[in-house]
Amino acid sequence: MSTHLTTVAGVPVDTRHFIGGERVASTETFTDVSPIDGSVLAEISRGTAMEAAAAVAAAKAAFPAWAATPRAERARLLHAIADGVERRLEELALVETTDNGALLRSHRRGVMPRVAHNFRFFANWLLELGHEDFTTRGHTNHVTWDPAGPCVLITPWNAPLMLATWKVAPALAAGDTVVLKPAEWSPLTASLLADIAAEAGLPAGVLNVVQGYGSEVGDPLTAHPDVRRISFTGSVPTARHISASAAANLTPLSLELGGKSPLLVFADADLDLAAGLAVEQYDNAGQVCLAATRILVEAPVAEEFTRRFTEKAAALRQGDPREETTDIGPTIHPRQLEKIDGFVRRALEAGARAVIGGHRGEGQYYVPTLLTDVRQDSEIVQEEVFGPVLTLQTFEDEDEAVRLANDTRFGLAATVATGDAERAARVTARLVAGTVWVNCFFVRDLKAPFGGSRHSGVGREGGTWSFDFYCDVKNTVTAPKGFKDHG
Ligand code: NAD
After folding, report:
1. pLDDT tens, 386-435?
2. 444 CB under 6 A from ligand 1?
3. Is 201 exposed, middle or buried (0-12, 13-18, 19+ CB in 10 A)?
4. What SS3 class is residue 228?
């Protein structure tokens, strides 16, 4: 077997970059470790400015032909990639779980089918994306969505292939070429995606994958003058850094960042449903950007809500994410575990009380935690933990609920539990968030806009919004025949 192939969960994975249709190795590597048991999975090529430049050059060279490829052909190739994802669904699910520790059953039943759907959805949307025409004093305005050029797509570790393809699919559909840089803690499925795209017949250079650290290969990618779009999902500090880097070339950016989203539980809510929604926030060990980590409960029902919540939380099984019966897996990395533990220790020292949890589990696990007696201006209420840690606060009325909900620097999502439709309309209108759910959570349609307000992001992706971002929108104004009067 090539020294550049590693076998993960029985699946061969290439550890090199994928540039211009070829596998390319770096001289240095970094070690990829499984969060499940700390075992070494692979030595992955560690990209530098050289590989970044080569990947952008490949994307630039491939762009004119890909942009000129008829939409129907682009759509056909995206469907062929979706077919490949479906064929290799089990392999992708196994590798992703081994690499990032999220539940195998979720990868099998929810995430990987969704990865295929990302490609099918944007392939179909592309065929519907027409042009817009209107008339101004006899002149026609003809609005078109033109391919923009090479895009750099940078993604985090918490939902690696899902988040990568949420960007790759619309960019390719738009006629752009792509350099994808996955996170260094979960680099493997991006490499499998490169194989699948090549097998599907995607021309060389249209999709490139470079591996490595943000500071080493990410920086030269985002600062590159030939890059026409940067789409980034990750943390606020990295977003600031990338924004500064993109500013030199005025490269348009889409930023999908962190959150500290609220779950508002009103006294008129179905409390069982509300408690279930709250417990759902422990999914993926709380490493979910959209997680509603601040539970705000109307005071008269706080005790009953807490009773139902703790009952449901006690039934959660923490363990090996490959087991069908497991509900919560490990945290991604010892550094993430340390970060989570630090947040909770400081909160407890500041006077918080752990209703459940409040400490590490074995190995790389953190015990699902609910903290109460927390101050609105405290770190634990204001900062994103990105672990299975929720806070509970009470409110007296709608005004206070909205004030607390909006009082962080984030604005990614919010969830409202209420039995009163008029209240739902009043409250949702006042919440600052890119997505608001009423009596539900995580229901997402690819047609809908997705993104965050304030420090949770810049711009929206999804449906038309994705094409607005990944395309150069152009208006062509044509005078009527024989028109002479410019006065
Ligand atoms: P991160 O910002 O540390 O890293 C994200 C990606 O950026 C990685 O690929 C990393 O290598 C790269 N990167 C780091 N420094 C870079 C640089 N200087 N130049 C270019 N690239 C660089 O974030 P993370 O810890 O991997 O992810 C967790 C964060 O992502 C959380 O804040 C979470 O809320 C957020 N997130 C947001 C969404 C969303 O859709 N809004 C979805 C998932 C995760």
Report:
1. 999 999 999 999 999 999 999 999 999 999 999 999 999 999 999 999 99
2. no
3. exposed
4. coil
Going along the chain from its start, the domains and CATH numbers come out as 5-257+452-475 (3.40.605.10), 262-438 (3.40.309.10)
Distance CA 179, CA 161 (A): 14
Ligand 1 midpoint to CA 319 (Å): 26
Residues 65, 329: Cα–Cα separation, whole Å: 44
Q: What pLDDT sits at residue 487?
A: 57
Q: Name the pTM for this structure.
A: 0.97
Q: If we measure between CA atoms, which residue out of 397, 381, 102 comes closest to residue 261?
A: 381
137 CA to centre of ligand 1 in angstroms: 49
The residue to which tokens 């229901």 are assigned = 443
Tell me phi and psi for residue 262, to 5 degrees: -95, 150
- Rounded to whole angstroms, the Cα distance separating 417 from 436 reads 11
What is the Cα–Cα distance from 94 to 108, expressed in whole angstroms?
8
**Collapsed DSSP state (helix, strand, coil) of residue 203:** coil
Longest dimension (CA), the chain: 80
